[in-house]
Amino acid sequence: MKLYKDIAEKSVASIKNVGEVHLRTFEALAAKQIEIVQNAEIAKKLSTIFTDGKDVNEIVFAQSDLASCYTEELTNSVNEISDILKGAQDELTGLAEEAFDDAKVSAEQVSAEVTAYAEKVVTDVKAYA
82 and 25 in contact (C-beta within 8 Å)? Predict the structure, then answer.
């Protein structure tokens, strides 16, 4: 009975660990999303460009400069998001490998218990026959 209790406890702990990884990943992605939205003042800046621009060349140059800056920010954000997701993938892979190893050990233990019990039953039947 202890073996089955241990297996159940490991299963619950494994599910909890996966949930914690998902929660940390969600929180990191949500924080990154908020950061991106807060940094994306492109509409304000674009409005200023059109309002303050004196000629077409100045407006086009300012728009190009703004696009370059925003593209760089967005590229950095995408790289950070990739790092967040890679970290989560690595954690989940580690948890899966650990769970697989635990399952293998548990299966061997259950098999040994079942074999021992079956041998005992056969011995008892032979003793009564």
Answer: no
